[in-house]
Amino acid sequence: MQGSLPITVIIWLLASSCSTYQYGTVSSAKMPMNEKQEFVYENDSLRLVYNFNGPNAPVNITVHNKLQVPLYIDWKKSAVVINDQAVSYVPSELRIEGGVQGSSYNTGTRTNGATFGSGIIDATVSLPPAIDFVPPRSFFTRSPIGLTDRLIENVPESDFHRLKYQAAEGYRLKVKAAVFTEENSPLRFKSYLTLMVGEVTGKPVSYEHSFFLSRLMSTDQPPGIIWLNVPNRGNQFYISRTPSSGAAVAVVFGTMTAGSMAVWADKKSNSSN
After folding, report:
1. DSSP label at 158?
2. Is 251 inside any structural domain?
3. SS3 breakdown of the chain: % helix, strand, coil, rounded to 5?
4. DSSP 180-207
5. pLDDT digits 0-9 by tens, 94-103
6. Whole-angstrom Cα distance, residue 141 to residue 63?
7. Number of domains the chain contains
8. pTM confidence score
9. What is the pLDDT of residues 202-217, one digit of tens each?
10. Cα–Cα distance between 241 and 232 in angstroms, integer?
């Protein structure tokens, strides 16, 4: 039975786009996953949940405090190690948000004179806290960092294999995919998380967990297409690169079946190869 695709999906499909998207799948040799494909570590004191879903592989960390006393997360003593390079969970740069309002006036003639200006800066400086407080029997979530905002290009072309990816029932499109083990993965990383129990001056306890990129898929289709049926899997992320020139978008009204879209997708893929 052929299904019908949402009109927004059809608009995306018919857009003339030169963007490149990479979709990564994260795995771990030791951490199990829950039904949301998130990575979970649990003991008598806490439960840690790692979720990497979204653009640029965000490291979403949730700490569930199972105790009757507070937990404190020391971000300054926590870090992610990406391919052997340590990156602190507390950025070293200040984030400034705001705007400038000003005026200028000219004295003299067009060819002889001076221009004076004045302005007011209205800005907010944000410095992420070095320590977060997790009350008893509660949880806290933070996304301190993204793993990368650039396409992963250190993968030989010979590692990719062409296949047909099923985005919806009756609709498949051609993509390139590569599969990796922990040993040959182009992206390996560890998370070091430091916490104190009961008091902020308590003895630090560190937790280390390892992850690696186990699958990389390359295509020109956006997340609205690729993640049509699975938009929130905790072990999947995407990276994109868009050319500076804009792409024309074709707006189509009506309904198109998934079967007819599959025929169109094959023709589009063949014309682009």
Report:
1. G
2. yes
3. 10, 50, 40
4. --TTT-S-EEEEEEEEEESSTTSPPEEE
5. 455 555 555 5
6. 6
7. 1
8. 0.74
9. 999 999 999 999 999 9
10. 21
